[in-house]
Design brief:
With 407 residues, this protein is mainly α. The chain is built from 15 helices and no strands. It has one domain (3-188, 203-388): Growth Hormone, Chain: A, CATH 1.20.1250.20. Helix 10 packs parallel to helix 12 (278-296) and helix 11 (247-275) crosses helix 13 (302-325). The chain starts with a helix and ends in a 22-residue tail after the last helix.
């Protein structure tokens, strides 16, 4: 690594641990509290689940205007994280389901807004040869932090769901520390520019047909995954499906097991990302997402649920690397933030619609039936990606004629 890369790596590890704790709010605890404590309606639960997606959807606007106003990506990325921490702090004292849902939604939204800026930082500060592995270590420590918080938090909530207030206070403080760590990551000061038209980002879709096609295909497996995320908790907490697990067991099955598997595999997945044909890697990841849906949402025993979560952990290990860094396989360095902004924008759209679709199908039919639809979309995505395998992505290592990257 370069000296800048080493400093980035050190502070990104701190950021990763703190983010791991923050991730438990939108992956486990916010929905669990809405379901078990507030007995929230499906509409409010869907709103909480869509918060991260709305944040991604508006991230291209934030990335555009914050860079014009501030001009230093680390500050721009840290600011919404601080706001997210205050929203979660407010949610800890919410007295009704609506207040809690709104604050949890806003906390999740601001937590995700920064991602185009973070990807640009990684592109600028890490070398292509080890970018996936370096980022993978950040994911690894994030998973460790997530496992510790989700397991201890789940056991703590076994003593009473009303104890969530202290849990949210502690996690909001950790999220605030994540913002402080991001501020310490090196980033060059750029001159302020006049406000551009953020919608000019969409011209990328017409210029880069390969990127546009992969983005289109991403819609199918993105919808499949996102529509089932809240259903993972619903499936194991409802008597209708024969489980009704305790908060501690819910946290273990839905939170700790996937994160533990991700810890074991995220570095190898980062190594594969740096060296493997990206299209092949993405198809392999999608296959594991499909297998998890088949096993988990048809499980009749706790060991089957655990095995489904194990498969999900494998998919998460590769999916986290690929989701955060895949645009570096298509964009030239100066365009990385714009490409990532387009990715997060469309991810935000499907992320708002998918949980709603998941709840509609689950309520009108069943959660296993919703998983069947999701699995079908995943299979379609694999078939649509297959024709791209021979060429791969422009910045795959095998493509020696790809434009050189600055380091």
């Amino acid at each position: 690594m370069t000296p800048v890369g080493r400093k980035t790596f050190q502070w990104d590890l701190v950021r990763g641990v703190c983010d791991g704790a923050g991730n438990t709010l939108h992956t486990t605890f916010a929905l669990l509290i809405a379901i078990e404590f507030f007995k929230s309606s499906d509409q409010l639960k869907a709103m909480i689940a869509s918060g991260t997606s709305v944040g991604m959807g508006v991230s291209f606007l934030y990335a555009t205007y914050s860079h014009c106003l501030i001009g230093r990506r680390n500050i721009e990325a840290a600011l919404p994280v601080f706001i997210s921490a205050f929203c979660f702090f407010g949610a800890s004292s919410a007295r009704d389901e609506v207040s809690f849902a709104v604050l949890a939604f806003l906390g999740n939204l601001f937590f995700m807004v920064r991602f185009p800026l973070m990807t640009a930082i990684y592109r600028e500060n890490y070398l292509r040869e080890n970018r996936g592995q370096a980022f993978g270590f950040g994911v690894l420590v994030a998973s460790i932090g997530s496992i510790l918080v989700v397991r201890l938090g789940g056991l703590y909530l076994d003593g009473g769901m009303e104890r969530f207030r202290l849990l949210f206070l502690v996690i909001s403080a950790i999220v605030f520390c994540s913002g402080l760590a991001i501020v310490r990551i090196p980033s060059k000061k750029t001159p302020r520019k006049s406000f551009p038209n953020p919608f000019s980002y969409f011209t990328i879709l017409g210029k880069d047909k390969a990127f546009c096609y992969v983005l289109f295909v991403w819609f199918f497996f993105g919808v499949a995954n996102l529509m089932m995320i809240p259903q993972r908790l619903e499936y194991i907490t409802q008597d209708r499906y024969g489980h009704s697990l305790s908060p501690g067991m819910v946290a273990l099955i839905a939170g700790a097991i996937p994160e533990l598997v991700k810890i074991l595999l995220v570095i190898p997945m980062g190594w594969l990302f740096d060296r493997m044909n990206f299209i092949v890697l993405r198809i392999v990841i999608n296959v594991f997402f499909g297998l998890y849906m088949v096993v988990y949402f048809n499980a009749t025993t706790v060991p089957m649920l655990a095995f489904g979560s194990f498969l999900l952990g494998i998919a998460f290990a590769g999916g986290t690397i690929s989701w955060n860094l895949w645009v570096t396989k298509f964009a030239i360095p100066s365009e990385t933030a714009k490409y990532m902004a387009m990715h997060t924008f469309f991810n935000g759209i499907r992320g708002v619609l998918a949980p709603i679709a998941g709840y509609l199908i689950a309520s009108s039919q069943s959660i296993p039936m919703a998983s069947n639809y999701a699995c079908a979309l995943t299979v379609i995505s694999c078939l649509m990606l297959a024709p791209l395998i021979p060429k791969g992505a422009p910045f795959d290592r095998k493509n020696g004629d790809a434009p050189a990257e600055s380091s």
